[in-house]
């Protein structure tokens, strides 16, 4: 097994462990067993538990990015107006697939862990800032192409919409809101906040 392959299996096992049982029951030994590697190899690749959690967060972010059409590293975006790209971006987490449900659980758990663990707090905050900036720039693109109201403050709208997605996902993961209802609520909020009259 190559080192890159081992690291990938470890991160995927970590993601599964958090999705199944949460952070409170997260054990590096369980991750190693699921990945088919030694505990020593986990620490070789990720130094410590927080390093593994950060890599797991990166994995969860990549999964959402793929689903949501987030711009690649060259800044290229999919075709379509800014409003449509924003809807695609924000609704990526609301697809309702088992994988996206598990991804939402992982994200909720990592955000909760960041409340108490300074070792991953900066990484979580940096990811949230990046996501919010991505939403802000997509709103600005929509304002430039006329699909989003020009009088909307893009930064404030991005803050509101990303917080709304986080809140909706937290309700979905505990079963108090369906995927469809959450998607409709988000679309309604986007229409009311951003659509030109």
From TrEMBL:
**Where is the HTH tetR-type domain positioned along the sequence?**
4-64
Q: Which residues bind DNA?
A: 27-46
In terms of domain of life, where is this protein from? Answer: Bacteria
- Answer whether the UniProt record assigns the keyword Transcription regulation to this protein: yes
UniProt keywords (A-Z) are: DNA-binding, Transcription, Transcription regulation
Respond yes or no to whether keyword Acetylation is given for this record.
Answer: no
Q: Name one GO molecular function term.
A: DNA-binding transcription factor activity
- Name the PANTHER family for this protein: HTH-TYPE TRANSCRIPTIONAL REGULATOR BETI, HTH-TYPE TRANSCRIPTIONAL REGULATOR RUTR
Q: What is this protein called?
A: HTH-type transcriptional regulator TtgR
Encoding gene, per UniProt annotation? ttgR
């Amino acid at each position: 097994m190559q080192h890159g392959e081992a690291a990938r299996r470890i991160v995927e096992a970590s993601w599964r462990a958090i999705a199944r049982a949460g952070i409170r029951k997260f054990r590096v030994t369980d991750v190693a067993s699921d990945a088919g590697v030694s505990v020593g190899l986990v620490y070789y690749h990720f130094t410590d538990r927080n390093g593994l959690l950060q890599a797991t967060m990166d994995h969860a972010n990549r999964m959402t990015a793929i689903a949501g059409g987030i711009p690649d590293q060259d800044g290229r975006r999919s075709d379509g107006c800014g409003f449509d790209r924003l809807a695609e971006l924000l609704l990526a987490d609301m697809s309702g697939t088992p994988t996206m449900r598990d991804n939402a659980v992982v994200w909720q758990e990592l955000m909760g862990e960041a409340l108490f663990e300074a070792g991953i707090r900066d990484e979580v905050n940096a990811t949230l800032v990046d996501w919010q900036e991505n939403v802000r720039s997509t709103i600005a693109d929509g304002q430039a192409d006329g699909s989003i109201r020009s009088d909307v403050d893009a930064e404030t709208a991005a803050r509101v919409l990303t917080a709304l997605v986080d809140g909706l996902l937290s309700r979905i993961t505990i079963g108090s809101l369906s995927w469809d209802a959450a998607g409709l609520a988000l679309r309604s909020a986007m229409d009311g906040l951003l659509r030109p009259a």
